[in-house]
Amino acid sequence: MFVNRVSELELLKKRYASGKAEFFVLYGRRRVGKTELLARFCEDKRAIFFVSDLGSEISLRTALSAAVNTVLFGPNQMNAVYATWEDLFHALAQAAQNERLVVVLDEFPYLATAHPPLATILQRVWDQTLKNSQIMLILCGSYIGMMEATVLGYQSPLYGRRTAQYLLEPLQFQDARLFFPSFDAADQVRAYAVYGGTPAYLHTLQPHQSLSDNILDGILSRGSFLYDEVRFVLQQELREPRNYFAILQAVAAGKTRLNEIKQATGIEGATAYLDTLQQLHLVERTVPVTESQPHKSRRGIYRLKDHYLRFWFRYVHPNRSQLERGGAQIVLENQVIPEIDHFSSLTFEEVCQQTFWQAGLSGKLPFVPTKVGSWWNANEEVDLVILGEKDAVLVECKWTSKPAGMDILAELERKSTLVRPELENRPIRFALCSRSGYTPQLMKTAEARTDVMLFELADLVRSETQT
């Protein structure tokens, strides 16, 4: 199942049609769908598609030679091996002199690790011949840190050669929910909270089963694909994973400030570990949306960027001993199910944030947002603040089983007095997003006021937000 990625495909097609040599760098976390995207792009094109793996320099050069020869000369010539990497790249340049040729080197960091001079060799051949050909060279990799250092970084021999780069992110809610259309609206949000937007994880969902059965069979049960997935990915990405595991578990448990993380883990050098985790796009540091200098803010907090990472560290990793002994049903019934709505509430805010961005950019809000994010100060918090050049909307997101009432609006109005000094005289409006609807009194009040908007869960799931 290939979902969305429309803008990414359009970017690749635009570069393909440029009429000049292209050096495209695509990178992102494992399982996010890079290979699937590139395979879809290459379907109707003259293309050499090579996926690297662990191996020696000679074994990888032999395998790539076979892939090149098969496309250029036919399968009967695939066994000839290019003597050097220079010869191989020059052959590609020759083949692309008068006709467009797409060359995908997937998992490029494996090649660079097996033969460290490879980046320098490629840079030299690019400058000599490839840049004057009709080649579209695509380097792709999952090791985000290594891709940024080996290909994109200032110290890399390939620095400045790329003509485009793209960090492929997980799918947003409106696309992720296409993997589980049979779930009701509330379970679609819960499923997104558990699995996130990583296509490989979403593919494990069995739509004929309930969400709880999917979690039991596909996550908590030994031998399932997702049971050890996080451990596998982190061990691939991190050389000394123990301290990183401790930090990720602390953040997943709600330790969001630096001092809290240090106290929970006993790691004094936590800042350096957090910096690495941010570079890997596993952790993000967020600040109140009104901050004008985010990097200097003392109000920053840390959170796990990936939903499934958060679920795994909350329910799988701490219960590993019990799960290893067949206790999946017990963990599901005693921990996951009782806490699933509390766990999903943060994701509901994220779904609302994505929806307001989409609505604003498509003209369904009275203004175009410049920022959408949370606001907090000391013990006070506003779920979302939508900022425009001259407008502001304060949003409360209620993921509860009871209809939201007048008390919710009154509390949001009270908080507005705290946020107002940071809004630079923008007029304030209010919006409520509720899983369980609203009381008749609140709906009547909203109808009578022009500064209050109410959104049902169905509005958010359909992404048809109107004002």
From TrEMBL:
Domain called DUF234: residue spans: 312-401
An MF annotation (GO) of this entry: ATP binding
InterPro entries in alphabetical order: ATPase_dom (IPR011579), DUF234 (IPR004256), P-loop_NTPase (IPR027417), Restrct_endonuc-II-like (IPR011335)
Annotated ranges, domain ATPase: 2-204
Pfam families: ATPase_2, DUF234
UniProt-recorded name of the protein: ATPase
